């Protein structure tokens, strides 16, 4: 009897476990691309962190090919003949997708039937192809004109055109997210860069990441791509909150966090050591062009500041000691200098909520309390000369 019950429980457990396995279904990809007849075409799954080759077939002499994909959930797949000739598909369960092309490329000239998500990605990839061509054209002009006498004027024009290209993509991405918040294709679009430049800033444009996360988590609660995006959004939210809390501690009236660094001779110097005098805390870096420009402007007023008992403490966020000390020497900086040569990883960057946005200024009173903080050196000089010298 005990063995009989044990066997029944075993069967119930087996039935339960089978009923809770992820439901699988097939998606079918059919192609008709005569221009690629005889070529091998590969199917890859675009996973969260890498790609995985699933299958390959030789395209028939009439340009036909066919793939079947077993799906547990919607996902991204890549059709390619080589690294430069590819097409990204968004496949849903039980979806039948047909890819047709009148050329020998998988992108330009292609038409997709039967997959709305894949159509969205096709349109986006075509747009990005044109974006790349525009940027490549700018690069050609840039390199060809580097030796010209009016190169700086040319570079300004190129920068202006690049900004237009960048804004075109930014507007495209925002419009796409607003119109298709429930499509997994949004995850491809929202993360695509223009060259090395992110189009949406994780913190400044947080609302687009958050809205996408909210809709997709509701629609695809078990999807691995959505889960990865959700984790990322959670991290961004935490980072924004941490910076908000840090920023509250840095508001005027609060005491500036202490800093302990080595000066150019290797001796330790701290903000606490300088207490008892008014201090302009100047965050900069030798590699940062704007900082070097600010150096020249500060030198012109330094003697006047000293006469009025205002000292400057230059805090370098360089990660190369030679670059830092070289800049101090070349720019002939007379004020106090300090650095830990840790660059973006310096605790100072986090303590003062800088985000490596250099140069940046804090003006402190004799008790190390923050009087004001400012990014623009002209505003700093104006306030020091007009607001504080008479005090």
Describe this structure in words.
The chain is α+β, with helices and mostly antiparallel strands. It folds into three domains: 22-114, Immunoglobulin-like; 124-248, no CATH class; 260-388, Glutaredoxin, CATH 3.40.30.10. Helices cover 43% and strands 22% of the residues. The protein has ten helices and 15 strands. The strands form four sheets. A five-stranded mixed beta sheet has the order 13-12-11-14-15, covered by helices on one side. Helix 2 packs antiparallel against helix 3. It is elongated, with a radius of gyration of 30 Å.
Calculate Rg over CA atoms. 30 Å
In the predicted model, the low-confidence regions spanning at least 5 consecutive residues are 2-12, 14-20
DSSP summary, beta strand count:
15
Strand order of the largest sheet: 13-12-11-14-15
- CATH superfamily label of the largest domain: Glutaredoxin
In percent, how helical is the residue content?
40-55%
CATH architecture classification name of the largest domain: 3-Layer(aba) Sandwich
